[in-house]
Amino acid sequence: MNYLSTRGHPDRKRFCEILLEGLAPDGGLYLPDHYPQVDSATLAKWRNLPYAELAFQILSLYIDDIPPADLKAICAKTYTPEVFGTEEIVPLRELEDGVYLEALSNGPTLAFKDMAMQLLGNLFEYELARRGAELNILGATSGDTGSAAEYAMRGKKGVRVFMTSPDGRMSPFQQAQMFSLQDENIHNIAITGVFDDCQDIVKAVSNDLGFKRKYRIGTVNSINWARLLAQVVYYFAGYFQATASNDKPVSFTVPSGNFGNVCAGHVARMMGLPIQTLVVATNENDVLDEFFRTGIYRVRAAADTHETSSPSMDISKASNFERFVFDLVGRDATKLRSLFVDELGGQGRFDLSGDPAFRQAAERFGFKSSRSTHADRLAIIRDTDKRFATLVDPHTADGLKAAREHLAPGVPMVVLETALPIKFAATLVEALGHEPARPARFEGIEALPKRVVKLPADVEAVKAYIAQNCD
Ligand SMILES: *Cc1c(COP(=O)(O)O)cnc(C)c1O
Description:
Blueprint: E1 3-5, H1 15-19, E2 30-32, H2 40-46, H3 51-60, H4 68-78, H5 81-84, E3 92-96, E4 99-103, H6 113-131, E5 135-140, H7 144-153, E6 159-166, H8 172-179, E7 186-192, H9 195-207, H10 209-214, E8 217-218, H11 225-242, E9 250-255, H12 260-270, E10 275-282, H13 287-294, E11 296-298, H14 321-328, H15 333-347, E12 349-351, H16 356-363, E13 367-371, H17 374-388, H18 394-404, E14 413-417, H19 425-432, E15 453-456, H20 459-468
Helix pairs in contact: 3-4, 3-11, 4-6, 6-7, 6-11, 11-12, 17-18, 17-19
Bound molecules: pyridoxal-5'-phosphate.
């Protein structure tokens, strides 16, 4: 399998070459040069496989530069009941007639990002050992991504994590999750400032090519193809649980921010998984809903990005969206570049409303969308508790709202549960008047000793800290 850049760079790369990279050299995103097709006989063979085995089968179609026995061992080591809580790994439950919740949040940090990040940790360790190389991951987080990365990389050989976060601005639970890690290769850096300061520091360090090379700085952001690929697996697993045979269509609703999760659904659908509709659920930050309704993609300024009660969906632009648009415009890299470089780069928007390609977003690619508000989330959380004795987190509540707006008779609708409610306790208290139950392993974590350094919002201070801790 070869990988290409959405912006037309002539190089073709193998999986392990792009595994440790971010963007392609021309600023594009990597995609496989074709989507392997899965026929009904293959689906039938896969239907009853354990999750780790299913992951191996799907990953094998995209990874041909890791020996199969090694890849199989990596999948087996990643997707275990010990790490993800159940034999099914992503159990499905019917909430009401035709509406299902697929649990993706029972990993170490209680959000779906563990599904991909845990695999990434094992792939990184494997590939770095094979190269005799080291990697220092530098990141910025306001919560979910940073903790998922740290729990995936803790104790891994050849990898260090330097994770910046805005001092005092994460929830006490999130701080405790990250700062209680005592592993030597995990460095928490609390920056005196806001999330944007952290992100600016990461960008500045990454733009210093000399420093970046000398200290082998890398990232684990959501545009990494391996993360997206890992997420494709649970669409298949969800499909198999929602159906008894492979001639039945299923729809999925996906609480969306950077469009990584739902883009994995798009890949599964392109492979031939019988997905009818992919519903993109957004909150008040409705860049994506606006596009799917109107054909206009208009990124927001930082000042126009709302802080909401589903914070992991608070985005101003969707970093993975370029992958889907590449397919939407028929993989025409010249057209893609004019949209993303000239128009988006110039005016902060592009307009496909008059383009025949835009109609295909729904007709050919199955996309629909919805938007919800804080009041909607509170209402859904209350209603789901009252009618089904089930607590959902605010992101999953956004999903349930959107799902109900796009139900089709006879087609199961699977809503991806992207976090457990305990991670967003304040909103649950606002909706229900009490805190959600906490899994036993998280009892009292706020009282554990914390491993974190506090630094000013200053690039040089962060560089000096990295340099000091790199030998
Ligand atoms: C990251 C995240 C999302 C958004 O996922 P994308 O892949 O960025 O679209 C939604 N919900 C939760 C809880 C998350 O952590």
